[in-house]
Amino acid sequence: MPTMRSTTRLALGLGTAVATLALAYPALAQQVQPNFSLNWSNTRLLNADNEPNNWLMQGKDVQSHRYSPLTEINRDNVNGLHMVWAMSLGGANDVVDDNGPNIMATPLVDNGIMYAISSWGRVFKIDVRNPSAGDLLWISDPEIEHEGNDPQTRGIALYGTSIINPLRDGRLVAMDRDSGEILWDKQMAVTTEYGGQERFNAAPLCIEDKCMVSNATGDGGTRGWLAAVDPKTGDEIWRTYVVPAPGEPGSETWQDTAQTAWTRGGGGMWTTGSYDPVNRSVIWGTGNPVPSYDPEFRPGDNLFTDSTIAFDIDTGKMKWYFQLTPNDGWDYDENGVNFVFDAPIDGQMTHQIGHFGRNGFYYNWNAADGGFISGTQWVNDLTWTKGLDPKTGKPLEYDPDLAVQTYVPETRALREDFGTEVTTCPTWHGGTAHQPPAYNPTKYIAYTVSTEGCFTQDMTKAEITEPPPPAGQGTLKGVNGTISNLYYGAITAVDVRTGKVLAKVNTDEEIRSGMLATAGGLVFTALTNGDFVALNDETLEQLWHFNLGTPLKAPPMTYAVNGRQYLALQTSGLHVHPNRYTDLMHSEYLFVFALDQ
């Protein structure tokens, strides 16, 4: 069985003629080109909803619905689900790091062939047509240098006959879907001139002859950016930064006297965006401003952090934006997926964007111009603001004339609060972050998992760092971190027409996975304690569970082969605060479930 590896970022494989030639004559590797059918990819991906047997994109479709019309597995028989096969993608890992191998990816399936990924970016091509076992066809390994990187991925993208794979070391790699050969390899994320380290986390979004990728590490003292590349060559087409440079629109919202805050301003983009084909807009969420907990270091609204942004797919220009939390001081970055949908407003079908905010509110915007439609609280505990202005969607206390927002003062930790402890809800990991939601377009119900509760910022020994660090966090010293004093998980169902919470269940621990909705009247997710669960999609009553004995962080998916429906998910990853379930062994596995034949 061939294993494709690349030690020189070329196609140095074992077991194939092309790979052998590349080893002897490296220049030949550059001549390997896929048989691209861009029209094939665009047509299929734009109409992914018409292929219920397949799962072609991380969000199932360009609108990021994560909804499947398959009905073989339903409320009446879900209790008969059982594991039909499993495959090691790395096996058990005795990892010292609390997060373990950080797998947050969804496997992709195209007509009985699955593509999965391990935490170090190794891609697995698996024939899943056998109902009782997966047939591993090849492994392609782009070989990330482990030193200085961490094992983490949120997935890959399919386009034409290629697999587009963003790596933690900042490389973007294209692999041939048939052979696993590396077709091109581009270093896109770098160490900035200000000392910040850019990285990739999110899967690409490939559509309309482009693949969009984003810099994830805003907290590392960089500026988030979104870029489009040519999937045939990897050549960059456009790149747009979240934090504007001086003189660019929005730069006036970075008002520090030294005019240096923008250089490390944050706004990392570490989840995959969505595509609005009606307006030809790429919809992406942006992260928090940096430093996270010192808004006085960076006075102003800090555009375009904590925002949902619509980018023109052809040029990368911002068409519209909506900033959820101006001058954020709680790490409420808004990387949660924005899904595209149509729903009635006053009897008129309206094209909209929906978003579960990390700041605790669920939002709807007009997809054409970002006009605010509605916003409602969906988390249990929310104290940082008294609510949203029903006309603008901004927090009620927001004052555009203030350089530093005060919001609800007793929940807002500022430098004048040195020597105290300040408690705020939701917690700094609150609401939804990277966990992808699901949307049922027939019932107008959106589902999300979340971290709920409150946290305390201990500023009893805080001091200002002079001079400030060259990049990233750390403008304050002596701060005793952030303390979780009420911290748990939840699964929530919201009617997108009203914003009303229809059902909600709480869990002992935060949930770091994501949602899957199906026409069988079910939603699925995975819990930190190892439980893979199925719930009634209207009441969220748990109908089935199976414990996999390892922490779960990746979202589940579903596909069908020869008329039989399957469910699949990968493991593992922890990222729990406070850290519990540490007795569970971390692992890298693929698990597949089905009903009895």
Fold and architecture overview:
The chain has two helices and 40 strands. It has 597 residues and is mainly beta. The strands form ten sheets. The chain has a six-stranded mixed sheet with strand order 2-1-9-8-7-6. A five-stranded mixed sheet has the order 3-34-35-36-37, with no helix packed on it. A hairpin with a 5-residue loop joins strand 7 and strand 8. The model is unreliable at 1-36 (pLDDT under 50).
Structural class: mainly beta
Rg for CA atoms: 23 Å
First-to-last CA distance: 30 Å
Strand order within the widest sheet? Answer: 2-1-9-8-7-6
State the shape.
Answer: globular
Q: Return the average pLDDT rounded to an integer.
A: 90
Q: In percent, how helical is the residue content?
A: under 10%
Number of strands: 40
User: Residue ranges: pLDDT <50 for 5 or more in a row?
Assistant: 1-36
Strand content: 35-45%
Please give the largest β-sheet.
6 strands, mixed
Q: What is the helix tally?
A: 2
Summarize the structure.
The chain has 597 residues and is mainly beta. Helix content is 3%, strand content 37%.
Name a few traits of the molecule:
single chain; 597 residues; mainly beta; 5-stranded mixed beta sheet; globular; disordered N terminus
Please write out the topology.
Blueprint: E1 3-5, E2 12-13, H1 17-24, H2 38-46, E3 67-68, E4 82-93, E5 102-103, E6 108-110, E7 113-117, E8 123-127, E9 135-141, E10 152-153, E11 157-159, E12 162-166, E13 171-176, E14 182-187, E15 205-207, E16 210-214, E17 225-229, E18 236-241, E19 274-276, E20 281-285, E21 307-312, E22 318-323, E23 338-345, E24 348-356, E25 361-366, E26 372-377, E27 421-424, E28 438-440, E29 445-458, E30 463-464, E31 476-477, E32 482-495, E33 501-507, E34 516-518, E35 522-526, E36 531-536, E37 542-547, E38 557-561, E39 564-571, E40 586-594
Parallel strand pairs: 1-9, 3-34, 5-10
Antiparallel strand pairs: 1-2, 4-40, 6-7, 7-8, 8-9, 11-12, 12-13, 13-14, 15-16, 16-17, 17-18, 19-20, 20-21, 21-22, 23-24, 24-25, 25-26, 27-29, 28-29, 29-32, 30-31, 32-33, 34-35, 35-36, 36-37, 38-39, 39-40
